[in-house]
Amino acid sequence: MSDDGPRLLERAKAGDGQAFEELLTPVLEVAFRLAMTMLNDRGAAEDVVQDAALKAWRKLDRVRPDAPLRPWFLAIVANECRSARRGRWWRVLRFPDLRSTAAVVNMEERMDLATALEGLEPAHLLVLSLYYHLDLPIGEVARVLHCSEGAARVRIHRALAALRPAMTAELDA
Amino acid sequence: MIPEDPDLRRAMDHRSGSPSPEFRVRLHRVLSDGRPATNWLPALAVATVIALSVASVGVLLAARNLAHPSHGGPVSAARTASPSPLPTESPVALPTQTFLSAPSRDIVWAFVDYRLLFRSRDRGQTWERRQLPAPESAAGRLVFTFTDSDNGWALLAVNPATQCQAEGETIWHTSDGAVTWHQLQTSGIAEAQCKQFIAFVDPKDGFLTAWDDNSPPTIYRTSDGGVTWKPSRLPDPPGFKTEGGGFTLHAQEVVRPGNVLLVTAYGMQESGGEGYVFRSIDGGAAWTYAANIPNSAIAVAFVTESRWLQVIIPGQSVETTDAGKSWHSYASDYGQAAPVSPQVVFGDASVGYATVRGSIQRTEDGGLHWTMIKTPGVAQPG
From the CA of B114, how many Å to the nearest CA of chain A? Predict the structure, then answer.
């Protein structure tokens, strides 16, 4: 949070929409990119980021003035993405999501990386997106996931293993 | 050490994008409406759990002290959720999620934002807020079905296992228009598979669909209002082969638009997504393949036994009038903001409702013309 952060935070907590928007603006781009990688659908990503913004504003009283806003907001976005993927029509409309990790493994030789990402379990997709796509430092990845840095590293390795088993085998060698 | 992976970065970049100016404007408008009020539902749910727990312990202690023998009791009403005053909530912001159940032309139910249940008895002109089968609704996926203005069932699916090998469920019934809900003590539903939809076609006959990543979907049927259930499996349709690892069908809601039962099922093959319609003429004991779906990413609306629609946007909607043997272009004026499949339900052969991202449209001429109606519980656009 910038020098103005605490003041903006107080104003936003008091209901000042402009102040909340100013707080949100620096993290909006990265939040939207996370939602896009999680959902692979612009409309759905817009929906979850909007919902996440409203929820974040509602819960803003829980944020300490010295706490970084980005991991906190990204955790809310990630939760909203999980909810969206559990939604009723998601499985009807997003056929690639019907595929499990096992299916990706079975078809690995025939599917490219983008298709494999589509079939990845949401938890794996989230951690890969945070680290590889959003370039968050491992400490911030851990804060978004509410785990230790070591656990975050383990999750990244597991997600890579689920995505491309051969790659992990190379690393282990 | 975490490996570098430029290929993965490129793949994710390709999948990503930036927020559009239109979205930024929309978000600005939503935020201009002011800070949303605190959502008290989770706290209310916890309080209700505590209250129910205390009440249950009290009942058990009283029963023990009285040494009162059990008489078995009714099969239903194992637990009852009664209405409780809800604190004032801020309106839901669109877009959101709305799910509809239309048991007749005038009666339509809407489940909005996964937390608000409404009933309309005048085709969506006016809405009444109704009760959820709390408090469990906060802990799982809730799906509703109604057969009239009073009788309804709620499926609460909880704790899905990996690849949906198993999932728990509870089924609730209301006979007073969702003022109170009673949990049914059900039998016959296996723990295996995730429970997807519940649909009742009359107050006795209902269906529950279940799926997993490794086997064909199951359609459970009941003929006693949801207490006892029997399973049937959907067969592989022509050209579809069920295989482990996700290449399985997912059955949707069973409907009865006439004398037969119909259900759509979607699934993945190596060639891509496929959709099919199945029918049953024996109350759901056996299901047979009926037809392929032309656009497998769009839900099918069964208007009558033989007339089915896929409404998408003007110029793309299709219709069959011979139960899927042939499909032709249909000049519906249905349109929507988002290029996603609407949920479309018909109360009879003329009146139907469609919803996408929370907005609801109604047709009164079998799907040709549609008009927007108010979504209950949401903030009106400024």
Answer: 9
